[in-house]
Design brief:
By secondary structure, this protein is mainly α. The protein is built from ten helices and four strands; from the N terminus they run H-H-H-H-E-E-H-H-H-H-H-E-E-H. The N and C termini lie far apart (about 180 Å). It has helices at about 45-50, 55-65, 75-80, 85-100, 165-180, 180-185, 190-205, 210-220, 230-240, 280-285; strands at about 105-110, 115-120, 260-265, 270. Helix 2 (about 55-65) packs across helix 4 and helix 5 crosses helix 7 (about 190-205). The radius of gyration is 48 Å and the shape is rod-shaped. Strands 1-2 form a two-stranded antiparallel sheet. Strands 3-4 form a two-stranded antiparallel sheet.
């Protein structure tokens, strides 16, 4: 019984000096009369409410912002109308929260093109960004969908369409397009681009334009630098330089009738005439008084 325990402390240890829960009064200090919340409550971390560098106004404002539903007004004007503190003190508290990561401001473009500033309240500034959205009882704000990325080339310009798609006309247009690479190696077209351009060339040929004239209109005055999309250039020329339709031509009348050869009753000479005539022209002239 007289053996002394060397591991036992000589006296009871006091709380550290920097512990906020340390009490300096005997039998005094703060006590809690808590009732468990079941509705209309918010969970706030002690790292905010017991922050050592934030002012009391910034801590209270941070707690208020975390309790607001999504979409509520959090600008200086709305907060100054809600609390007795003026805009200057509220703006200073917001800057404190933003400096310590409890608040950030983001600029977004709406569907109408207007740029708006959204205030984002962070309940854990230094935690992982993969957080679950807060259950505030309000529907989440709509996010503008990102525009789809362009995966291919832009569509080729439209080309004129012929009124008569005769196979011979389309074949002539196809031969013209495939032969352009012999005049300029940059005009090597793919099968898809050629099929798109064939009706445009046929529309030119349909307007009494010769093959050489069409070829000259497509290849004359090309730029010296490399062509990124030769099919787009040709499609633009086919539509932009399309000549007017040819002048209207009155169709010729029916051919004169061809009569059978018969013998003249006067001179027995062969001639062509209707069945009502039995003499040739010379005999009819002699028979006149």
């Amino acid at each position: 019984m007289d053996t002394r325990d060397p591991s036992a402390p000589p006296r009871s240890q006091s709380a550290p000096a920097d512990n906020p829960s340390r009490t300096r009064r005997h039998g005094g200090g703060l006590t809690h009369d808590n009732v468990r919340h079941t509705t209309r409550f918010v969970v706030i971390g002690n790292h905010l409410v017991q922050h050592k560098e934030l002012s009391l106004l910034a801590i209270g404002l941070g707690c208020h912002l975390q309790s607001l539903p999504t979409g509520a007004g959090a600008d200086i004007k709305s907060l100054a109308a809600r609390f007795p503190e003026g805009p200057t003190r509220i703006a200073a508290a917001l800057r404190e929260l933003e400096a310590h990561g409890y608040l950030r401001r983001e600029r977004h473009r709406t569907e109408t093109g207007r740029i708006v500033t959204r205030t984002v309240s962070c309940n854990q500034p230094h935690a992982d960004r993969r957080r679950e959205p807060a259950d505030t009882g309000c529907p989440p704000a709509k996010r503008t969908p990102a525009p789809p990325r362009r995966t291919g080339h832009k569509a080729l310009p439209t080309v004129p369409q012929p009124s008569n798609k005769a196979p011979a006309l389309l074949q002539t247009a196809l031969d013209l397009l495939t032969g352009l690479r012999r005049r300029d190696a940059r005009l090597l077209l793919s099968a898809t681009d050629t099929a798109h351009l064939v009706p445009g060339v046929a529309a030119w040929l349909e307007r009494d334009v010769t093959v050489g004239a069409v070829r000259h209109a497509l290849t004359d005055g090309l730029p010296d630098e490399p062509l990124r999309r030769p099919a787009a250039l040709l499609a633009h020329r086919l539509a932009d330089r399309l000549p007017p339709p040819p002048p209207f031509r009155t169709p010729a009348g029916p051919p004169p009738p061809r009569y059978e050869v018969r013998n003249c009753d006067g001179c027995d000479r062969g001639f062509r005439a209707p069945e009502t005539e039995d003499r040739c022209r010379d005999c009819r002239a002699t028979a006149l008084p």
